[in-house]
Design a protein that fits this description.
alpha/beta, 8 helices, about 45% helix
Length: about 220
């Protein structure tokens, strides 16, 4: 794969930044694509741009504002609370988001001559999002190849990792401090360790604490 080109679906968060470092290790040429769908925090776009610039990665930002109109949710509307209820999808779920993002990433890949598409979706810590499941990714991969008569490969380096293992991968790639200090995962728009209270921050913090404890005891 070292001679191949890859596109990373990139939000500037912990998972996609770890995947960006992973892609840089695996592929000769890497580009990143970020989708602007009128996120609650436009800072997410700025963080993604800043990381791509620092890592000298060609960065594309695509307008996906239509998604905001079709699928109002807590990530795009200030008047919808961020909440998770037992037996229900979280209010942060954006219907069709990964379907749309990966489809457009493949269209971009076709234009720039990339055969590999990397996404940070994960079935272990996925909050029940149906479009983070391995079966969905495999199905979409087949569909994209048929739709464009091409041979894309969608890579999901974090698919079977919990957050502690994702931190471990970042550490293995020599990027743990970078990911911890420069990424934006927080639903309330606080860079690095975040607000410490939202579900995303709790998941991130618990994973980091678990990994550091495991590392210290090894």
């Amino acid at each position: 794969m070292k001679n191949d080109k890859a596109i990373v679906v990139f939000s500037g968060g912990q998972d996609s930044t770890t995947c960006l470092f992973w892609a840089k290790e695996k592929f000769a040429e890497v580009e990143a694509v970020t989708f602007d769908y009128n996120q609650r925090h436009q800072l997410e776009i700025d963080v993604a741009k800043g990381i791509a610039e620092e890592l000298n990665i060609k960065h594309h930002v695509l307008d996906m504002s239509l998604l905001n109109q079709l699928a109002p949710n807590a990530l795009t509307r200030d008047d919808i609370e961020i909440e998770e209820k037992e037996g229900e999808l979280p209010s942060t779920f954006v219907p069709g988001r990964n379907l749309v993002f990966l489809s457009f990433a493949a269209i971009l890949a076709k234009q720039v001559g990339a055969k590999h598409i990397i996404t940070g979706v994960c079935e272990t810590d996925f909050s029940g999002y149906p479009d983070c499941r391995d079966v969905f990714i495999k199905s979409l991969n087949v569909t994209l190849n048929l739709s464009m008569d091409d041979e894309f490969v969608i890579h999901t380096p974090l698919m079977w990792m919990d957050k502690a293992e994702a931190w471990g991968l970042a550490d293995e790639l020599g990027s743990l401090d970078f990911v911890r200090e420069k990424t934006l995962t927080c639903y309330n728009g606080v860079i690095a360790d975040g607000c410490g209270e939202c579900p995303a921050c709790e998941l991130r913090r618990n994973g980091l604490e678990t990994y550091l404890k495991q590392k210290g005891g090894s």
